Amino acid sequence: MPKVVYVSPDGERHVVDAVAGESAMATAVRHGVPGIVGECGGNASCATCHVYVRDDLLARLGEPGDLEEDLLDLAVTERRTGSRLSCQIELTEELDGLTVDIPPVQP
């Protein structure tokens, strides 16, 4: 069972157990992690689950697809290295310990 660490803008850490195959967004919503809205339910159409993936596991995620790239460009918060939509991150045992920073504002 992979663990995911969500870090709020104020530095508070939310460590949760995930289910392999579930998205990082669904895991956050299921555990009530503040700052991950997931307004579209994980359909990659709203960018309210924008996160900054830490460098240590970023390469394991691969590159974002065209739709995700477009949504990240429209996100309210600054896009930077590691910006991803958490609905597009499928959790696996290989991603155990994934740490993501939650932007200060979601759309």
Concise account of the structure shown:
The chain is α+β, with helices and mostly antiparallel strands.
CA-based gyration radius: 12 Å
**Strand coverage percent:** 15-25%
Poorly predicted regions are: none
The total of beta strands comes to 5
Q: In one word, what is the shape? A: globular
Order of strands in the sheet with most strands: 2-1-5-3-4
Order of helices and strands: EEHEHHEE
Indicate the mean pLDDT: 92
In this structure, how is the largest beta sheet organized?
5 strands, mixed
Helix content: 10-25%
Distance between the ends = 31 Å
Number of helices: 3
Structure description:
With 107 residues, the chain is of the alpha+beta class. Helices cover 19% and strands 20% of the residues. The chain has three helices and five strands. Strands 2-1-5-3-4 form a five-stranded mixed β-sheet. Strand 1 and strand 2 form a beta hairpin. The termini are far apart. The relative contact order is 0.30. The model has no long low-confidence stretch (mean pLDDT 92).
SSE layout:
Layout: E1 3-7, E2 13-17, H1 24-30, E3 50-53, H2 55-58, H3 66-74, E4 83-85, E5 98-101
Parallel strand pairs: 1-5
Antiparallel strand pairs: 1-2, 3-4, 3-5
Keywords, separated by commas or semicolons:
107 residues; alpha+beta; 5-stranded mixed beta sheet; 19% helix; 20% strand; globular
